[in-house]
Specification:
By secondary structure, the chain is an alpha+beta fold. The protein has one helix spanning about 75-90; strands at about 10-15, 20-30, 35-45, 55-60, 65-70.
Length: about 90
Amino acid sequence: MDNNELLPVGSIVNIRFSKEKYMIIGFYTKDANTNEIYDYSAVVYPYGLINLNDVTMFNKDLIKKVVYRGFDSEEDKIFKDKLNDLVKKMNKQ
């Protein structure tokens, strides 16, 4: 996996410091308490989203293994290209 590439929604990963598997549900999520922006938001697999406090946020560098890669599509590629362009513009401000 390219370090700049974002995994598709539905991908399942193992992250450092946890024995759980996580399913990716979103990108560039802002933590309401710290205002920090994380690469991924995810929920524990196979349980999913039980309540809003169950969302875990982490950056790419914490992924130690991709257990399952979610569905790649042309729509996914177009979305991520636009999302990455937006993030680059925001970082320049």
